[in-house]
C-alpha cells in the first residue's frame, strides 16, 4: 500500500490563490512597467521535468497570466514539494513576457 500523499489540482490551485499576493509581487518585480497581474487559474498544469538523469528534475506546476489588463502573456513555474505535493512558492520563475501589439506578439520591454 502506497503512503505517497496525493493532492488534487483544485487543492493546488487553492494553495496558489492563497499565495497570490506573493506571486503577483514576484511578477511585478521582474519588470518595473508591470503594474498589475491577472492569473489564468484554468491554465494550471503539472508535469515532470527532465534533466537527462534517470531520476529527472522532479515535478513542477505552471500557470499562465497576463499583466496591465492588456493582451499580454507570461508563464510562471514552481517546483512541487515532494512531501506536501504543493507548489514551492519560493522556487517561482516567470518568463516569456509578451504583448500583442501592431498585429503580432512582441517581447514586452
Q: Structural class of the secondary structure composition?
A: alpha+beta
Radius of gyration: 15 Å
Cα end-to-end separation: 52 Å
- Figure out the total of helices: 2
Determine the mean pLDDT. 89
Strand order of the largest sheet: 1-2-3-4-5
Give a short account of the largest sheet. Answer: 5 strands, antiparallel
Strand content: over 45%
Overall 3D form: globular
Helix content: 10-25%
> Topology as H/E string?
HHEEEEE
Instruction: Please provide the count of β strands.
Output: 5
> Low-confidence spans: pLDDT under 50, at least 5 residues?
none
Concise account of the structure shown:
By secondary structure, the chain is α+β, with helices and mostly antiparallel strands. It has helices at 9-18, 20-30; strands at residues 37-49, 58-67, 72-80, 87-101, 104-107. A five-stranded antiparallel β-sheet has the order 1-2-3-4-5.
Report on this structure.
By secondary structure, the chain is α+β, with helices and mostly antiparallel strands. The chain has 2 helices and 5 strands. A 5-stranded antiparallel sheet has the order 1-2-3-4-5. Strand 2 and strand 3 form a beta hairpin. The protein is globular and about 50 Å long. It starts with 8 loop residues before the first helix and ends with a strand. 13% of the residues are buried.
Amino acid at each position: 500500500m502506497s503512503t505517497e500523499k496525493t493532492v488534487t489540482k483544485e487543492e493546488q490551485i487553492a494553495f496558489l490563490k492563497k499565495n497570490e499576493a506573493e506571486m503577483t509581487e514576484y511578477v511585478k518585480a521582474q519588470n518595473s512597467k508591470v503594474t498589475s497581474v491577472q492569473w489564468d487559474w484554468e491554465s494550471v498544469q503539472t508535469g515532470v521535468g527532465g534533466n537527462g538523469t534517470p531520476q529527472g528534475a522532479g515535478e513542477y506546476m505552471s500557470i499562465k497570466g497576463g499583466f496591465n489588463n492588456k493582451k499580454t502573456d507570461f508563464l510562471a513555474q514552481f517546483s512541487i514539494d515532494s512531501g506536501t505535493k504543493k507548489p514551492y512558492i519560493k522556487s517561482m520563475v516567470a518568463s516569456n513576457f509578451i504583448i500583442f501589439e501592431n498585429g503580432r506578439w512582441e517581447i514586452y520591454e
